[in-house]
Design a protein that fits this description.
The chain has about 110 residues and is α+β, with helices and mostly antiparallel strands. The chain is built from one helix and seven strands, in the order βββββββα. It has two domains: about 5-35, no CATH class; about 40-110, no CATH class. The chain is about 20% helix and about 40% strand.
């Protein structure tokens, strides 16, 4: 640690993150992170067909070092499980399925 400011970089999947820590008497008093840009791709959701649900669901695509598909349960409450501990396994499985369906649909649309 260097006083008054310690600077270093963290590696992340999306690139380097610059870190600056204001230090005093051997401890950090404030830390500033400068990362890659983060944004939502489109203001309106895309529609992705999910075979296990036998329906399409709205998803938002966002970037924050890598791409994310964001699903709001309240936009399709009749088919999506509520976010509760007892639904964790099903939600994780659906997340993987949505990721695959999103990639397949995206590939088909780009050809």
């Amino acid at each position: 640690m260097e006083e008054p400011v310690t600077n270093f970089k963290l590696e992340s999947p999306g690139g380097l993150i610059n870190v600056s820590a204001e230090c005093n008497y051997g401890s950090a008093k404030s830390i500033t992170l400068t990362s890659m840009p983060s944004f939502v791709k489109e203001p309106e959701p895309d529609s992705v067909f999910v075979p296990s649900l036998d329906t399409s669901i709205p998803i938002f695509t966002a970037f924050g070092g890598m791409w994310y598909a964001i699903v709001f349960q309240d936009l399709k409450p009749e088919v999506l499980p509520k976010i509760r501990p007892e639904n964790a396994k099903r939600l994780a499985s659906l997340g993987e399925e949505i990721k695959v369906c999103r990639c397949v649909c995206k590939d088909r649309l780009s050809k």
